[in-house]
Design goal:
elongated, 3 helices, mainly alpha
């Protein structure tokens, strides 16, 4: 009987979710900033993939000068047949 109860205990523990046992700590600010940068790059890349003309880089909403330059560079890499205006 002890063996049965002991084996039942181990089976129950092995199927328990470890997520419920963890304490969720907030991520450090530097990690959050890096995640946001990566998300912004993915968003820009999706917009750049749809572009037909390099001048569309200037029309990206809320893009700073660095992001617009990234857009132009990436667009030219994706479309080597197009020369910069």
């Amino acid at each position: 009987m002890k063996l049965f109860i002991l084996s039942l205990f181990f089976v129950t523990i092995s199927f328990a979710s470890t997520d419920s046992l963890r304490v969720q700590a907030p991520l450090p600010d530097s990690v959050v900033q890096e995640i946001k940068k990566e998300q912004r790059i993915e968003q820009l890349n999706a917009q750049i993939a749809k572009m037909k003309n390099i001048s569309e880089c200037n029309k990206i909403k809320k893009a700073n000068a660095k992001e617009k330059e990234y857009c132009r560079t990436r667009f030219l890499i994706l479309h080597p047949e197009i020369e910069e205006e």
